[in-house]
Design brief:
The protein is α/β, with parallel strands linked by helices and 825 residues long. The chain has 28 helices and 31 strands.
Length: 825
């Protein structure tokens, strides 16, 4: 093999050759610096079982694909595209002579879909599999199925630095696991104070300055995203020493700028590379002696409840932190500054979660359908797709007409799967021809597949981006904003999409964007709802935007981007949409229905006829004579929302309710009904509905005969027994009748002046049961003197003291020594 340099992985190459000669699969564990990415493919080219076929190696990122291919080609003394080539989305350097082809993971998926038996391929290598991208998991599942059914001679090799090799081997029918030592030098870890999120950039700048002063070699700094890299670059550029070059490194950079960051610094110079996770693995950045790690990364998270994917900043795992630190020890002893404590390091998750557990599964579901699998269980997975997001993905694909009702792929779905686009965008491009808008659709697909050329928080009007694309350099001031390079990439990608679907570029108008966006996002057709800036989405939920912006004047929008949460979603990217376009494009999905509802804002029943697209009302007109049953149902909903207190309760009716509940407790065998508020509310249809005829508003509830409605609940002979067992008043010894008051805690209280109780020898009892009435005895001024349920004890023990105190205060009233024989007053 060319290149006389000895690398650690060389020691396991004989065992690897033997394993693949004997078995269809193998697993190679090798830490960074072992040389697995560039050594293994070339070492296997002459194996007899390869029989002149190609080796296809998967890498998770385009930068790693190009770097690995160039390095291996240089080892052979050739140009890229000869024996070693590469293929990424919209870019390829391969030839008939190519034996090793390095590709991104999505390229393999599309190749498998086009030719499941992979003609001319003898070995698939899944490199850096520990990153567990969705495409890598899908590619391995499809390759295993092809190997099992069509290509038993196809070899699979999974390579990784930090993954449970035993678990992967079990998936590959107990494949042999080979382990290589790494080549790394000691790395000193220095923990720093973790800054608050707004202070991250200043803290990183301080740590980089410290590293440049205290340590040797170039610096590799890890940040969560492009925004932080731009801000940190702006902070460092004026203060870095003249002999230090500043190099950003992230996925959206042009290939030339990425290569510049990877290339060694010129003699006598150092560099500071500001990178995202793109620099964690697969790449060797020569000359790096120091790593400054923020400990953060940005990952997409899909929320099945809202159907939204959003980028979330999270802490790295322990495995990723070790990978990052190892970049400082590739060629000599190095230093790693971590912006978190040792205690926090111990609390990190051991490994990163697989993308399949938290991603939008629509691309995966379409790929499986194109493969012929209607359920994930038909293939083998290291981690299967979760059921909730899977079901939501299938529902979306059926809405896009990519899947038939039984889950089989449709002809349109097969055409969509052939495009290197998200199913939403592929559907838009496929359908745009019918609207004579194919060139604009291709441009939109490219725009929505790339990073937004405007900074986060910019005006969400998509037309602003399209107007920039109309200008040769992206518009006046575009370069100053740093978006000219992104626009150039979008234009180039749009050309690739046009060639893929066979259309030519021609003039287009930014104002036509909305009707195309609606094709890609039929669940995000938005209509104005409530105050300015508030919109209802056809797929459910609501979203808002700045009410002072120009988009807020639109009655309808097609929304391509949302941020926030399901309960507080903001529109990040959208374009105006005409009602006529909605009618023409979604005619089959629009339904017209009469709706009778309770309107809580107006506190009345509303009857209306609506044309609806999903949850979005497109047009509303009043209904003059709604069905009586529908009005009644809506009115009952109104009572439920307002609560039982909205009914015309009187004190006497509340007393009636308490009397019935008291007897229900004391005499359950009599069949007294449960008339508690909770039960009454749950049974409105049974007792209240017959008395709501003609009632259609909160105000009209005041006229409801609530007494009659409640009386219906008491079957014969309970109304008569109610008065008998729990009367509304009692007759005193004087012949006077006094009202009884029934309390919420289930007691009956009789309030009377003490003189009126003379001659009463026993406490009154209710309901033919030992439930004494509580007597509240009052002074001549009607102030409470005593409260008792045992009148006998009161006369004997309490009355003498009361008499002594009251005689002087009320001398004109009688206070006899013997109240039992006294004549009541």
């Amino acid at each position: 093999m060319p290149n006389s340099q000895v690398l650690p992985v060389d020691e396991v190459l004989p065992a690897l050759r033997h394993a693949l000669a004997e078995r269809p699969c193998a697993v190679l564990q090798a830490p960074p610096g072992a040389g697995k990415t560039t050594r293994v493919p070339l070492a296997l080219l002459a194996e007899p079982w390869l029989a002149g076929n190609r080796i296809v190696m998967l890498e998770p990122r385009r930068l790693a694909v190009r770097a690995a291919a160039r390095y291996m080609a240089a080892m052979l003394g050739e140009e890229t595209g000869d024996s070693v080539g590469y293929r990424v989305r919209f870019d390829a350097r391969v030839s008939a002579r190519t034996r090793v082809e390095v590709v991104t993971e999505g390229v393999l998926t599309r190749r498998l879909q086009a030719a499941p038996d992979l003609p001319g391929v003898g070995l698939l290598i899944f490199d850096e599999f520990h990153e567990r991208s969705l495409e890598a998991d899908l590619g391995l599942a499809l390759a295993r199925d092809s190997q099992r059914v069509l290509r038993p001679d196809l070899k699979l090799l999974v390579m990784s630095a930090t993954i449970d090799g035993t678990r992967v081997a079990a998936l590959l029918d107990d494949a042999p696991v080979l382990t290589s030592a790494g080549r790394s030098h000691p790395v000193t870890i220095r923990h720093l104070h973790r800054p608050a999120r707004p202070e991250l950039v200043p803290a990183m700048a301080a740590a980089i300055g410290r590293a440049l002063d205290a340590d040797t070699g170039s610096v590799l700094a890890f940040l969560p995203g492009e925004g932080e890299i731009r801000r940190l670059a702006g902070r460092l550029a004026p203060v870095l020493p003249s002999a230090v070059d500043l190099r950003p490194l992230y996925g959206a950079l042009p290939a030339a700028a990425q290569d510049l960051a990877v290339r060694p610094a010129a003699a006598g110079r150092r560099k500071v590379v500001l990178a995202t996770t793109i620099a964690e693995t697969s790449l060797t950045i020569d000359g790096v002696g120091v790593v400054v790690d923020s400990g953060l990364k940005r990952v997409p998270r899909f929320d099945p409840r809202s159907g939204m994917s959003r980028l979330t900043t999270v802490q790295v795992s322990r495995a990723a932190a070790e990978q990052r630190a190892g970049r400082a020890g590739r060629t000599a002893a190095g230093v790693c500054y971590r912006l978190w404590s040792e205690a926090e390091q111990r609390g990190l998750a051991p490994f990163d979660a697989p993308e399949i557990a938290q991603a939008d599964l629509a691309p995966l579901a379409l790929a499986l359908a194109d493969w012929g699998a209607r359920e994930p269980g038909e293939l083998q997975w290291l981690d299967p797709p979760p059921p909730g997001p899977w079901a939501q993905a299938v529902e979306l694909l059926q809405r896009l007409r990519a899947l038939q009702p039984d889950g089989a792929i449709s002809p349109e779905g097969r055409a969509m799967a052939a495009l290197p686009l998200h199913p939403r965008l592929a559907h838009m491009v496929q359908q745009a021809g019918d609207l004579d808008q194919a060139p604009l659709a291709c441009l939109l697909a490219a725009l929505l597949s790339e990073r937004d050329p405007l900074p986060r928080g910019s005006d969400p009007d998509l037309r602003l981006r399209l107007e920039g694309l109309l200008q040769p350099t992206g518009g006046e001031g575009a370069a100053a904003e740093g978006w000219a390079g992104t626009l150039a990439r979008i234009r180039a990608a749009a050309g690739q999409v046009r060639r893929a679907v066979g259309v030519k570029d021609r003039p287009w108008r930014p104002d036509d964007a909305g009707r195309l966006l609606a094709l890609a996002y039929p669940d995000r057709v938005a209509g104005r709802a409530g105050p300015p800036g508030r919109y209802r989405l056809s797929g459910g939920g609501s979203a808002r935007l700045d009410a002072s912006g120009p988009l807020a004047a639109a009655d309808f929008l097609a929304v391509a981007g949302l941020t926030g949460t399901a309960g507080d979603a903001w529109i990040a990217l959208a374009a105006p949409l005409d009602a006529g376009d909605i009618d023409s494009q979604f005619a089959a999905d629009i339904v017209e229905q009469d709706e009778v509802i309770w309107d809580p804002r107006e506190a009345r029943v509303l009857a209306r006829r609506q044309r609806r697209l999903g949850d979005l009302a497109l047009q509303t007109t009043p209904v003059a004579r709604p069905a009586t049953a529908a009005v009644l149902a809506a009115m009952l909903d109104g009572v439920r929302s307002l609560g039982l207190e909205v009914l015309p309760w009187t004190p006497d009716l509340r007393q009636w309710q308490r009397r019935v509940l008291l007897l229900r407790r004391l005499r359950p065998a009599d069949g007294w009904p449960d008339v508690s508020d909770a039960t009454l509310m749950s049974a409105l249809d049974a007792w209240l509905a017959p008395f709501l005829t003609g009632v259609a508003s909160k105000a009209q509830l005041a006229g409801v005969d609530l007494a009659a409605a409640l009386q219906v609940l008491l079957p014969w002979p309970l109304p008569a027994r109610l008065q008998e067992l729990a009367p509304v008043e009692l007759t005193l010894p004087s012949g006077t009748r006094r009202p009884l008051h029934y309390t919420a805690d289930g007691t009956a209280v009789l309030r009377l002046r003490l003189q009126q109780a003379f001659g009463m020898t026993q406490t009154p009892v209710l309901a033919e049961a030992p439930l004494p009435v509580v007597l509240e005895l009052l002074s001549p001024a009607d102030r409470p003197l005593a409260r008792t349920a045992d009148l006998t004890s009161f006369w004997a023990e309490v009355y003498p003291q009361v008499r002594a105190e009251m005689r002087g205060r009320y001398p004109k009233h009688r206070w006899p020594e013997d109240p039992l024989t006294a004549v009541p007053g």
